[in-house]
Amino acid sequence: MDANLAASLDLLKRRRAPYAGTLAAIAADMLARFPPSAGPLLEIGAGAGALRSLLPQALRARTIHSEPAQAAARALRDRDGDATVVRAVAEALPIAAGAGGAIIGLCVFDAVADAGAVVREIGRVLAPGGRFVHLLDMATLYEQPFAKLASSGLVPIPNVFGDPGDHEWPLDILLLERRWLANLLRFAAHVEHPFAATFAPVFAPFLAEPFDAGAATAAFKVIAGSGDRRRTLAALLASASRLSVAQGHAPVEPLPFHSGRYLQSVLQAEFTAAGFTVELSEIVARAIRRPAAAGEEAIRYRSLCVGHERLESAPPRRLLSSPPPEPPQPGEILVEAGVFAFVARKPG
User: Fold this and answer.
1) Could you tell me whether strands 63-66 and 84-86 are parallel, antiparallel, or unpaired per DSSP bridges?
2) How many Å is the Cα radius of gyration of the chain?
3) Three-class SS of residue 94?
4) Quick check: 141 and 110 in contact, CB under 8 A?
5) Do 111 and 90 contact (CB within 8 A), yes or no?
6) Dihedral sign (CA 239, 241, 242, 246)
7) Considering only CA atoms, which of 174, 175, 173, 166 is closest in space to residue 305?
8) How many CA atoms lie within 13 A of 20 on its CB side?
9) Which of 45, 68, 134, 329 to pair with 263, CA 20 to 30 A apart?
10) Among the four given CATH numbers 3.40.190.10, 3.40.50.150, 3.30.1360.40, 3.40.50.1820, the one describing domain 3-140+261-288+335-345
11) Where are the beta strands (DSSP E) in the chain?
């Protein structure tokens, strides 16, 4: 298997592992509330089988897993010899027109190149009244939204000024006006403020012409993946901005951007335009109490909500689930998962 793909799949597996019970409960609940019609259940973008591991046993036997990457499809077959796996892209599914009872996906729709083409193919494959069920438990891919933001003159940075978990949808990104950021970097360089020397190379891909979404995403991850870099950005950005305001420049006015809600807007627009009825489009949360595992002795609460993870010594003020679950007992840990669940139904 390609080393990068293997590393990505392994990272996702490890991140999901502590939440397996809550994620499986959400998947089971979605497919019970919005049951598949008669016919095969088809998964798009199956990867190495993350969603299959969450499905109720009764549904696994009727599921066909489609995956375009040969290495991932092989990994899924190796992981579960009973799985039916086919190589296929989401734009050309291996099902006859109108034969699909339901189509499901986990963290896949943000990775498709042509959302409209995928929706049309889903519409072709589904039987009348069939459903598309998509779950998102991790943060979305950034290339497509970053390209659209660049065309609007906006530069994304990680939310370094607040807790993303203070919102129902994690507020993971803040937007800076491109011209304002370029001016601040020039000002900081002129007065020899460390903001310019430290972050001009990081922001260079966002200010370059033409815009390269891949390079910009890599630069964003340099900051997002390091707590020290995030704290440094917050301190230097605030400091340089205060100094520039004292010299008559405009203050920083970041705009909020929820990457999960961006995908929500894409899904709702594309499926509505194709004549589907959107039956659900929201964060769905579940909680369980379980014994603390090895390495969790100091943790009483942990949560994963659309990619944002919290590990706390006590439950925070704002929980994902409503009504709030009972607090953990000694030796227990309260585990919550929040998933963006999207369900659309083809006309019957």
Assistant:
1) parallel
2) 22
3) coil
4) yes
5) no
6) positive
7) 166
8) 10
9) 68
10) 3.40.50.150
11) 41-43, 63-66, 84-86, 100-106, 126-136, 154-158, 173-177, 255-257, 277-291, 301-305, 308-312, 332-345
Tens-digit pLDDT profile for residues 243-286: 999 999 999 899 999 999 999 999 999 999 999 999 999 999 99
289-304 per-position pLDDT tens digit: 999 999 898 999 999 9
Residue 112's alpha-carbon distances to 55, 89, 109, 199, 333, in angstroms, are 23, 9, 6, 31, 37
User: 256: cis peptide before it, omega within 30°?
Assistant: no
Amino acid code (one letter) for 56: P
Among 120, 147, 307, which Cα is nearest to 215's? 147
Report whether 306 contacts 170 (CB < 8 A): yes
Q: Could you give the 3-state DSSP secondary structure of residue 307?
A: coil
Residues of the chain with CATH 3.40.50.150: 3-140+261-288+335-345
Distance between CA atoms of 32 and 133, rounded to whole angstroms? 11
Across 160-198, b (16+ Cβ under 10 Å) vs e yields beeebbebbbbbbbbbbbbebbbebbebbeeeebebbee
CA-to-CA separations, 310 to 180, 298, 329, in angstroms, rounded:
32, 13, 19
What are the structure tokens assigned to 193, written together?
């403020």
Rounded to whole angstroms, the Cα distance separating 157 from 142 reads 12
For residues 70 and 305, what is the distance between their CA atoms, to the nearest angstrom?
Answer: 30
**Burial of 62 by CB count in 10 Å (0-12 exposed, 13-18 middle, 19+ buried)?**
middle
